[in-house]
Here is the input.
Amino acid sequence: MLPPLEPANPAAPADAAGHTNLLELPEWQAFRLAIEDATFCTDELRLVEAAGLTVDLSAHVTSPATRDAAVALLNARGFDQARQALLAGEHVNKTEDRAAWHTMLRAPDPILEVSREHQRVREFVQQADADGRWKAIIHIGIGGSDWGVRLATDACSGSGARRALKFVANIDGHALEDAILGLDPKETLVIATSKSFTTTETLANLRRAVAWLAQAGIDQPYEQVVAITARPDAARALGIPASQVFEFWDWVGGRYSLWSAVGLPVALAVGIDVIEDIRAGAAAMDAHFAQTPIAQNAPAQLALAAVANRSVLGYGSLSIAAYDARLQFLAPYLQQLDMESLGKSVDMAGNPVGVPTGPSVWGMPGTDGQHTFFQWLHQGTDGAAVDFIMCREADHQWTEEHAMLLANCLAQRQTLLQGTSADADRDHLLAQGMPADKAEWLSRHRKHQGGRPSTLIVLPRLTPYALGALLALYEHKIFVQALIWGINPFDQWGVEAGKKMASGILRELHGQEPDASHDLSTHHWISVLAQGR
Ligand code: F6P
Here is the structure.
């Protein structure tokens, strides 16, 4: 039952108020009906090439009608104009009146402030390498100021890490305790990454890290601190030398910031060429996205399949199955990128979208996931859409094991799509001498129903370039999904209330009179915990 449509929001700005709610679009109804009537075509190969990646869409429902309806839907949503506005740095983030210009960060010929900051990063890394400075780095940041750094460092450390890179994101004291274990403060650089430079976890962890440096006898601890932020003034006011404050800008979303100076710790850990190649791969995907017609546009096609799976076929989640152990952080990275962008329920006019929007995103590398939750994927009542990712070439010499890895990826994908035959299984059990009634009963438990959608994304090998192309593919896919649903993928108002509440509860834990608005349970635990302090 869809929520009733609220009246158009009088407060919405003119352009947002002019935005048509999805349910009012005949092109949406046509797309929805076409998807409902479509089937899997296991004898059809649907490949899209983009920036060196191959995207295989064969395991999604399709038909000539869905393909026509998809183009009509995107055109009805003003795809060309919206794409141009995004890439031109227009204020597409309407609720914050900002651009979302992450593509400029990796443009081959970026604006002066971007190229200047890239150069500052390059020089800082080259100087540190030349001086042999810093055996270890403690990277302090959370969310978009953390996941991309972890992912890129982990995925691209094949050429060997030049420095130990330890991550501190959580405010849990164990995070910092674990990070500093065994480190020599005099040989450790602390990097604080925070777009706002107000995130309580990051500022608290930074204070602790600086205290750790000071306690080790370092007179000017801030000389060993780097800040990467859109608030350079706040970082400098803390005492961090201006030469060690690197800037990105309000028009870069936190979860879209890896391409900026946020890549500095990656460069210190695994080399400046890694972040430059990551940017080059993303730029190639940007060019594909910008120039390719819808039918062969990989981000657009992925978005259409994702909207069909979520809003028509009813899959509530998307599982990320990267068949490469070096992509263990891809799922959490995409979790934030997708869920913080698409976890919205009102359209640009402030009205309920009217269909289910952003799915929950989760997963882990294959083949680990096969021994963790693939039972649910195959035989659970809901199932999920799955993004399989594999690299044709390994970066190790274990060729047989790599063949086994890829065989598992393909096998899981086919089994989700085609399922298994209960009749064939029953005959097999009968042939083994099992009584007919038991064979019938057991075959029902062993059946894989199939008919579960998936995408396969194939990288030639896991290079920084391919990683950059992959991440940009997902950024643009998410942008197109938001365009279809009519939501803003670039704000994150939903994280503010909890943060504000936490600050109030913290004061109450320190003895301030509890707020009368707490529910009884919250009030109870604040009282219990405050007493224990
Ligand atoms: O989770 C909310 C959020 O603002 C994210 O969007 C962001 O990546 C993270 O917190 C960290 O924010 P900052 O980079 O400003 O410390």
Notes: The two ends are 48 Å apart (CA to CA). Residues 102-280 form a domain with the Rossmann fold fold (CATH 3.40.50.10490). The chain is about 45% helix and 10% strand.
